[in-house]
UniProtKB/TrEMBL annotation:
Entry similarity comment: Belongs to the ABC-2 integral membrane protein family.
Domain ABC transmembrane type-2: 39-264
Highest classification ranks of the organism: Bacteria, Bacillati, Bacillota, Clostridia, Eubacteriales
Membrane topology: Multi-pass membrane protein
Organism: Thermaerobacter subterraneus DSM 13965
Pfam families on file: ABC2_membrane
Superkingdom of origin: Bacteria
Example of a GO MF term: ABC-type transporter activity
Protein name: Transport permease protein
Location, primary (coarse class): membrane
Length: 269
């Protein structure tokens, strides 16, 4: 709170309160933020010995978001992204590698079918959407989640996040020789995103190197979107930087996605 310049006064207490000792005027207990006016500081910055009776200080604490301090409103929005990431990155990587092992991709490469007609990635996107809906319904009904923002905006930005996760799965399949390698690579990509995204641990408490690494992970930008919409009711006017980064990831990985299946199909297994 002090970092955000919210607290105007702070109380400094001695370590040992069992013994009462005279306190001179230099041993001040109340300290003020620099924004407080000087007359107010002079009126408040006094020693307890100068007061006729102990001051009756009653802190007025107001929790702006999640006032009940429940874990569900904080974790469930991020879990929605985590479930969709698991359903797309892992299954896409395994599915494409399996098709390459069976020789299906080589057969598709010589057929006159268009990319949209093949639709190899559409089932995984639909499956991720179904998982998203199931977790959302469970959060609303079982855990009593009450989103403060727009569910339509949340769903749209989640689809934007899916573009990057599907692209990561395709790129992982392009560098994997078999399904075991694809699974290991998918977990290697997903677990750091879960741990470094701020979903479980605050990014500000991580080492500086880990903070730098977290800035290149797509899930790092989805977590503030999910919590901002669910807890704070934020809109696109506030969340547009994170949405722009996810859109950039989607465009970049989608462009690479057209090349990855071709490279995967031409590999001899």
């Amino acid at each position: 709170m002090q970092r955000r310049r919210v607290v105007l006064l702070r109380l400094r207490l001695p370590l040992d309160l069992r013994h009462t000792q005279p306190i001179d005027r230099e041993n001040r207990l109340l300290r003020s933020d620099h924004r407080t006016d000087a007359p107010d500081v002079d009126a408040l910055d006094v020693a307890p010995a100068d007061l006729p009776e102990p001051p009756n200080l009653v802190p007025d604490v107001e929790i702006l978001y999640n006032p009940d301090l429940k874990s569900a409103p904080v974790m469930i929005p991020g879990l929605l992204g985590m479930v969709t990431m698991l359903a797309t990155t892992l299954l896409v990587a395994l599915g494409i590698v399996r098709e390459r092992e069976y020789g299906t991709l080589e057969q598709l490469a010589v057929t006159p079918l268009r990319l949209f007609e093949v639709g190899k990635l559409l089932p995984y996107i639909v499956l991720a959407g179904v998982d998203f809906v199931l977790v959302l319904v469970a959060g609303l009904t079982v855990f009593g989640l009450e989103p403060a923002g727009s569910l339509a905006l949340f769903t749209g930005l989640t689809l934007l996040f899916l573009l990057s996760t599907v692209g990561l799965g395709v790129l992982g399949s392009a560098v994997s020789e078999n399904q075991q390698q694809a699974m290991q690579l998918a977990f290697f990509v997903m677990f750091p995103q879960i741990l470094m995204s701020g979903l479980i641990f605050p990014i500000s408490s991580m080492p500086r190197v880990i903070q730098w690494i977290s800035t290149v992970l797509p899930f790092t930008y989805f977590v503030p979107i999910a919590r901002g919409i669910s807890l704070k009711g934020q809109g696109l006017d506030v969340l547009w930087p994170q949405a722009a980064v996810l859109a950039g990831y989607g465009v970049l990985l989608t462009r690479r996605r057209h090349r990855a299946p071709a490279a995967a199909a031409g590999r001899v297994t």
